Amino acid sequence: MSIFNVFKSKSKQASAKKHKHLAVEEQLQVLSDLGIRPKREDFIEWICYEWGRNAVESDPYNLMLFSLGGERQKDDGTWEYSSDDIYSFDMECVEDSDIYSSIVKRLSALSNGLFTISQISSIVDHDNARASVSFTRNGEKHNWDLQYDDDWFDCNVINRMNNLLKDDNASKLFYTSTPDQNLIVLFTTREIIERINSFVSVPFVLGVEMLKA
Question: Is the pTM of the predicted complex or chain greater than 0.85?
Answer without folding.
Answer: yes
